[in-house]
Amino acid sequence: MRVVEDIELEKGMSVSKLIEQLFKSGGFSAKKVAEAAEILEEMVKDDSVVFLSFPACITATGTRGVIKELVKRRLVDVVVTTCGTLDHDVARVWKEYYHGSFNLDDTELHKKGINRIGNILAPNESYGLIIEEKIQEILERIYSKKKRISTYELCWEIGKRIGEEKNRESSILYWCYKNRIPIFIPGITDGAVGSQIWFFYQRNRDFYIDILKDEDKLADIVFDSNKTGALIIGGGISKHHVIWWNQFKGGLDYAIYITTAVEWDGSLSGARVREAISWGKVKEKARRITVEGDATLILPLIVAAVLERL
């Protein structure tokens, strides 16, 4: 039996050292955070194909910078996310989001043209208006060269355009384009960028988003891989797309889930890693952990610790 050790805080302690202390403490979620850092470090060092899945909401927060660092440093090989990630990443290249509160009067916010994402505020001029202006321009440029495009190619085209801006290095899409990391959006129409694509389609009926080309690319990635691992934040379509594809190669070799959802309602978002084993989406002997908690707190700790170790 392993002895529970008290956390010993020191002046100037590194994040990696703190994570080690959390593991030794044996306490509840703290130990899980430490285990997640170990697994992420191992899957990166093991030369696995690393999938990253996350929902759009954290891109509206400063956690966008953590995601950006993962793709900038090529610690992940594949990204699967939702259309809202494109919305927030594009918008924040040109405009600012602001601190708010969960307790603000939403009726008053609506009257003022301010959208609330939890405790983050995105005024209309920082969201819908700037997205319409920039995405229509980008779609025109794409259309002049090709009429059919996959979502990962679309993301690279947006990233390429962002590369012309002074704030480019803050962008997830820019670094995915620069490092040729495919970013898949299986629910491409579910967001502001998706709506702009539909509006563009009204004027250009021969323009198409080829989602089956995305599936071809995912198939190549999965079937050509030796081992695969996944860092999966939240749930929904992006989480399911990662684990669904990996069942075709016998399941993930590594899996980290970070979630705030409960499992007793049967939701995918709340399903723990062990449930995926029953489907063959995660291998029986995979290194795996489910960490319960807010990714805007947990993810920076895990990634900072791994960056120090690498």
- CATH second-level architecture: 3-Layer(aba) Sandwich
- Give the termini separation: 30 Å
Poorly predicted residue ranges: none
CATH superfamily: Deoxyhypusine synthase
**Principal-axis shape:** globular
What's the total count of β strands? 11
Description:
By secondary structure, the chain is an alpha/beta fold. The protein has a single domain, classed as Deoxyhypusine Synthase. The chain contains 13 helices and eleven strands. The chain has helices at 15-25, 28-45, 64-72, 83-94, 106-111, 128-143, 151-162, 172-178, 192-203, 211-224, 236-246, 273-279, 295-309; strands at residues 49-54, 78-81, 98-99, 114-117, 120-123, 148-149, 183-184, 208-209, 228-233, 252-259, 282-292. The strands form three sheets. A six-stranded parallel β-sheet has the order 7-2-1-9-10-11, sandwiched between helices. It has a three-stranded antiparallel β-sheet with strand order 3-5-4. A two-stranded parallel sheet has the order 6-8. Helix 2 packs across helix 13, helix 3 (64-72) packs parallel to helix 8 (172-178) and helix 6 (128-143) packs across helix 9. The two termini are 30 Å apart.
